[in-house]
Design brief:
232 residues; alpha/beta; TIM Barrel; eight-stranded parallel beta sheet; 8 strands; 18% strand; metal ion binding; Ribul_P_3_epim-like
C-alpha cells in the first residue's frame, strides 16, 4: 500500500488500536493474526529486539515476512536495535509499512528516515521516557510518525509513565495533524483515553488484548470506544 494512503487511512477516526503481537501465541501465529484482523484491528505492531539496544531478544525478518503473508493490514515494525541502518532495507523487504527506529540508537536519524521514505515506507522515530523532544527537533520534518514510549523498551507489562503524555501534547502543538503520534507501553482501559486526549492517534496494546479474559473483538471494541472518548 502506498505510503500516503497508509498515513491517510490511519489518520481517520477512531484512534487506531494496534495489537502488539509480541504477546500473541506464536505457536499459532497465522491464526492469531487472522483473529485480531477479524476482531477489527486496523494495523499490527511488531517489536524487533536485538538483545543489545534492549536487554531482550524477540524475532526478526522471518516473523515480519510471515505476518505479511497472512494479512494486508499495515504493519508497524518497532526496531529496538542498536544499528537500525543495517536492517531497515531487510525490514521493508519483509513487509513493513511503518519503520520505527529509536532516536537513542543513532547519532543522526535523518539519513535513515530519508532512506525509509525513499523505499516507500512510512518513517517513524521513537523516543524513550527520559529523552526530551528537543533531542529530535531536527529530525521531525522527516518523520511521518513519532512514537512516545510510556515505558522503557524491552519488556511488556510495565507501569505507564505519564511523561509520554507531555511529549504528545508538545508534539501535537508543534506539528498539528501533519504528524501521526503513537504511544506504546502500559496502554489499557485505564490509560487509553488519557493518551488520545494528549494527541495520540496510534495506540499500541499488548496485555490488554492478548492477556485479557475477553474475546479479542470485545477487547478491541472497548479500547477503541474508550480511546475515542479522549478526542471528544
Amino acid at each position: 500500500m502506498p505510503r500516503r494512503r497508509i498515513l491517510d487511512e490511519l489518520r481517520n477516526p477512531p484512534p487506531v488500536v494496534l495489537p502488539s503481537l509480541l504477546l500473541c501465541d506464536f505457536g499459532n501465529l497465522a491464526a492469531e493474526v487472522r483473529a485480531v484482523e477479524a476482531a477489527g484491528a486496523r494495523a499490527l505492531h511488531l517489536d524487533v529486539m536485538d538483545g543489545n539496544f534492549v536487554p531482550n531478544i524477540t524475532y526478526g525478518m522471518p516473523i515480519v515476512a510471515a505476518v505479511r503473508r497472512v494479512t494486508d493490514l499495515p504493519i508497524d515494525v518497532h526496531m529496538m536495535v542498536a544499528k537500525p541502518a543495517a536492517f531497515v532495507d531487510e525490514i521493508i523487504d519483509a513487509g513493513a509499512d511503518i519503520v520505527t527506529i529509536h532516536a537513542e540508537a543513532t547519532d543522526d536519524p535523518r539519513p535513515i528516515l530519508e532512506h525509509v521514505r525513499s523505499r516507500g515506507a512510512c518513517a517513524s522515530l521513537a523516543i524513550n521516557p527520559p529523552t526530551p523532544i528537543e533531542a529530535i527537533a531536527d529530525a521531525l520534518p522527516l518523520c511521518d510518525m513519532v512514537l512516545c514510549m510510556s515505558v522503557m523498551p524491552g519488556f511488556g507489562a510495565q507501569e505507564f509513565e505519564s511523561v509520554a503524555l507531555d511529549k504528545l501534547r508538545a508534539l501535537k502543538s508543534l506539528r498539528g495533524d501533519s504528524l501521526l503520534l503513537e504511544i506504546d507501553g502500559g496502554v489499557n482501559a485505564q490509560t487509553v483515553a488519557q493518551c488520545t486526549a494528549a494527541g495520540a492517534q496510534m495506540l499500541v496494546v499488548g496485555s490488554a488484548i492478548f492477556k485479557s479474559q475477553k474475546p479479542y473483538a470485545e477487547s478491541l471494541a472497548e479500547l477503541t470506544r474508550l480511546a475515542a472518548t479522549g478526542t471528544q
